[in-house]
Amino acid sequence: MPMMSADDFVSQGMERYRGGDIAAAAAAYRRALCMDPASANAFHLLSICEIQLDRIEPALSCFRRLEAIGLRHEAIEANRRVAVQKASALLATFSSGKALAEAASLAGAVLALDPGNPVLAFLFGGDDIDRGFVPRGLHRIAAVPADQRRRPPLLDAYNRIIVAAFEHGAALLNGGKPVEALLTFAALAALEPGHGQIASTLASAIRRTLREAVERHQSADLTGAVALYDAILAAVPGHPEASHLRRLAEWRRGSRLPAGGPERLPLSPAHPPEPSPPVLTICIPTYNRPDELVFQVENLMVQVLETGRRDIRILVSDNCSDERVERSVRIFERWNRAGAVLFEYHRNPRNLGYDGNVMACFDRCVSGHVWILSDDDYVLPGTVARLCAVIDAHSPTLIFLNEPGDTGGVAGGVAVDGTLTTPAGTRFRLPLGRPLSLDAGDEQLRAAVVSHSFWLSRSVFRKSFRDYDAADLSGTSVAHIGLVNLSLVGDRQPTLYMTDQPMVMNMPHSVFSHNFIEVFVSGMHRLYGSPTMNFSPGVVRAVARENFRFLERFIDGTHPPHMTMRYRPRFFRLVRKKLEYGAGIGETLRFARDLLKYRASFRIRAGTGQPAKSTSI
Fold this sequence. Notes:
By secondary structure, this protein is an alpha/beta fold. It is built from 27 helices and 12 strands. The strands form 3 sheets. The protein has an 8-stranded mixed sheet, with helices on both faces. A two-stranded antiparallel ribbon has the order 5-12. Strands 7-8 form a two-stranded antiparallel sheet. The chain is elongated and about 120 Å long. Residues 255-271, 407-412, 509-514 and 598-617 have low confidence and may be disordered.
């Protein structure tokens, strides 16, 4: 009997196929391929049989061989699409990435023929998420058209993936890993752009990452800061704060200069421009923090240059630091000589303490408005221009600068909504973005406003008084509160303006070097009780009680949310009870000191519970 050729087996297979015996036809085509492994006709006919027998992976193997030998025509392409569709439907039955391992060879066969297959991209994304590569997995899934991932058979798996990824990101955020959380929530936001909770948590991750980046920037770790800025920009392209700070970091590294910087101006012009009378003086009291100070002054210099104004003055009051501070900031005086920015540096002959340095700043001011700014708080881009616009338009007695919140959009919302609580417990809502006339005789409202200015850097006030009793402010550690109050008392028709945009961000690494008991029990009580402050005894006692409550909230970590101090709140409850039960302020203070004993100097770094070295400014 003569040996059968490949063509004979193909003909036999076609006869079996027409007779309805698909399995026998497939066997004949396989024998034909044994005789002639390059037979394109046998591969094509075998693929048709394999599809009808639901043997999807062998069918896909046939199409790969046909593609390898370059054979393409309409019938082959139509059958190829059918095979890929069947394979996708089969793969879609695997609901988790772990199960995908069981179909790895099938997935590989589909990937070889259809690299952009949406079901495959979805399942590989789920596999990444199961293995902990959450952002990469979410980006894979984002390549799947929304109408496909939101309908069966992928819908249930998609919903589970979204929930799992959100929980993973929240755990990273709460675990102190804001960059990893940022990447996760940015990928989630790309999948679900209209999801409010995802957007709000993304804003929180951005804000925490930005704080960490600014902290590194302030400590002169420019490489680490730029990496974090880049992470924010990768998540939110064009993010204004990250873009501004990245330019500032590159400028310090010498790779670029701001427009109109001093290097582009003559250092000794023949006729330097006459400065206008200062409208605003930005005072920075500082002590032994050269890196933070350089960051602050650079940021302010760039913002002043962007305004093009010559009536804004930057004044640094150095509280007798070591030579590092003077050496770091003297370079900025060339900006003044070049006629770019009004800048002054003063070094006190001795350390005047916090209050003395704050009052020294105030006494050196000749402008209409004064902004006492901490050397380590971050001033958001555009703040100086917006602040001057408010002064030009309204010239309010007091301006409260809002803080960026962790919610309300990618750039951060308004953290301070203008709600004040008076010592009597009455809540009062200030309007945002427009001036409000105050009654200086309403001591309840005035006390609420003054207490709201506790955090340094938040208040800009008009210098509506010249003479004051420095003894009333000295030794309280809150002299800036006294200056704010005096500006209200000294103005016949005081006005208050609270910005409707965030302008300054309090940094989480702030160090409180003064004794908390001294400040909240003794210092503030003495300040509010001084005749200069013009408060009645009832208001003074009410403020003292509220200060104890504030201490408890601070220690518990509920106020403010990004700054916590770990200490036993029972201690503060005991001290507060002592005061509420009728003890005088002196007796209460002695009681507190007896409780503290070896902790007579209570210094804790915010958020860590670790001792911090004194940085009294």
